[in-house]
Design brief:
Chain lengths: 79, 458
């Protein structure tokens, strides 16, 4: 039997740099190993900055996908 | 709204490299057919100064349902325009949606049958879908004999320091100085006029901002011209500036030659202390990182206050010094007497030299990039808090000229209290690249922006 994965959503739509990175970093600090953080953003530069900030902390960036016009979901697995 | 969430400095600009330029490249032929010619990127629009002052008429259109009065535009009969567009961030992320946004308004303007040139455009993003607008300062001027040049530019910010009262004088002064800086950069400081762009969540705050702007204008001998502003109830402070000059502006890129020196009026990285301070206030993890780096909140606050005090000062003295090294109106450029090229380092940071190198097909090297607060620049870059920490607001002015000219300019700037630094040189004709050292990785976090540079190990 596989353990159910905990997925947490963080909606930072409407936020501009540096806030998506600040809020995502704060959320990642609170989470446990193996959990997944899904960051929803509509600020294009954050689709680069948030994954880069996550990777720097050693988390695994699972991917970034467009979920609506101008809206993106970044999935990060916590180390 | 939590005031901390207002956005500091120039962080609200639509990305030039990936969005604005590609959109304009695609739209240029269509716009031409609509009677609208879009100029190349310059620090300011430059057009002949006649006997009569040009007439500036502001019009604001809603991009969702642009109601353009053709008779009104025919009556204005503009020759050119300065544009300011505010677009919701969902549409500002790619060139297609941004281009379509622009086209919705230009299609309506095109129906009036007028022909004009957009000499300077400024594009900013908003977090609010209902706060989009397009603003045009249409400029009408007579043809005939000219006695110099008129320069025009628009720039805006939300706030410079989200931890300060948005109604404080500093917020307005930095915003206005930032709009003026592009004219100063070109050596233009005479007969300065400003048309305010002020929007605020309430009337009281808007009045305060107008009041500070009026005081700033009066203190600096600038004429303030009444003009309507977008009434979206979201904070926005800036201006369209016009000024005159009776010399030839320093736009002689074709004369860049091997050995010429690159000078900046002061070290870069003004926005780093502000963003470091914000992050430390907002989250204890950043505070802890800051302390681990050996800095205290008091130290970063002091640095932040210092950069804001600097950014509140208009760089008019720099404009006057540049002006001394320009050819008289209609006289030929002489590299042994004149500054070849200048640039406002504020918006693009050091990428301004990459743009120049590409445009002039020369290679430029930056040997040392001086920073006001290197450890805070490193901090915001390492934590991805800023894409490009060499960018600023009302920032340093760059000048390129032969060694002898640069030495004179440097001495004059120093006498006026600036901290000029020679940061590099022109390598000569080449592929049009900017060469920098590895240390740039501690200043620029954005990979697309790093990709624009040739990074060399030293």
């Amino acid at each position: 039997m596989t353990e159910q994965q905990i997925v947490k959503k963080l909606d930072v739509t409407g936020e501009i740099c540096p806030w998506p990175v600040i809020f995502s970093t704060r959320e990642m600090k609170k989470m446990h190993s193996g959990e997944v953080l899904e960051v929803i953003t509509d600020h294009m530069p954050s689709t680069l900055n948030v994954p880069a900030a996550a990777a720097k902390e050693g988390h695994t960036v699972l991917g970034t996908e467009r979920i609506d016009d101008g809206v993106y979901k970044i999935s990060i697995k916590i180390r | 709204m939590d005031p901390l969430r207002w956005v500091a400095g120039c962080a609200v600009k639509v990305d030039l490299t990936t969005v604005v330029y590609p959109a304009l490249r695609r739209l240029r032929p269509t716009l031409k057919g609509l009677g609208v010619t879009i100029g190349q990127r310059e620090d300011a629009d430059i057009f002949p100064l006649g006997k009569d002052e040009p007439i500036v008429t502001r019009r604001i259109y809603d991009p969702k349902k642009p109601s353009v009065d053709s008779k009104d535009l025919k009556r204005i009969n503009p020759k050119r325009a300065i544009s300011l567009v505010q677009v919701h961030q969902r549409g500002a992320g790619n060139e297609k949606t941004f281009g379509d946004f622009l086209l919705s308004v230009y299609n309506e303007i095109g129906k009036s049958g007028i022909n004009f040139f957009v000499g300077k455009g400024h594009s900013i993003i908003t977090a609010y879908p209902d706060a989009e607008f397009t603003l045009f300062d249409f400029i009408s001027h007579k043809d005939g004999s000219a006695e110099g040049w008129t320069l025009a530019n628009n720039d805006t910010i939300q706030v410079i320091d989200p931890t300060l009262d948005p109604g404080s004088a500093e917020q307005t002064e930095v915003a206005v100085c930032n709009s003026l800086n592009d004219l100063i950069t070109l050596g233009c400081y005479e007969n300065l006029r400003l048309l305010p762009v002020v929007d605020a969540p309430n009337e009281e705050l808007a009045k305060k901002v107008y009041g500070h702007m009026k005081a700033f204008a009066s203190r600096n001998g600038i004429k303030m011209i009444d003009a309507e502003s977008p009434n979206k109830k979201k904070l926005l402070i800036g201006a369209t500036f016009l000024g005159n000059m009776r010399k030839e502006p320093p736009i002689h890129e074709e004369n860049l030659e091997e050995g010429m020196k690159v000078l900046i009026s002061r070290p870069l990285g003004d926005l780093a202390p502000i963003n470091t301070y914000l992050s430390a206030l907002a989250d204890e993890a950043f505070m802890k990182n800051l302390e681990e780096q050996g800095s205290s909140l008091e130290e970063v606050q002091k640095a932040k206050n210092q950069v804001i005090a600097t950014m509140c000062q208009p760089n008019i003295k720099i404009g006057k010094i540049i002006n001394q090294y320009l050819p008289e109106y209609w006289e030929a450029f002489d590299p042994s007497e004149h500054i070849v090229s200048t640039g406002d380092v504020s918006g693009p940071g050091i990428l301004i030299f990459q743009e120049l190198a590409e445009k002039a097909k020369v290679d430029i090297v930056l040997n040392k990039i001086p920073l006001g607060f290197p450890k805070f620049v490193k901090f915001v870059t390492e934590h991805f808090l800023m894409d490009n920490a060499t960018a600023g607001t009302n920032g340093a002015v760059a000048m390129i000229a032969r060694d002898s000219i640069i030495n004179e300019v440097k001495a004059k700037l120093r006498k006026e209290g600036y901290e000029p630094k020679v940061i590099g040189s022109v390598l000569g004709k080449g592929e049009g690249v900017l060469r920098v050292g590895e240390e740039v990785r501690q200043m620029i976090a954005s990979q697309p922006q790093l990709n624009e540079l040739v990074i060399e190990r030293k």
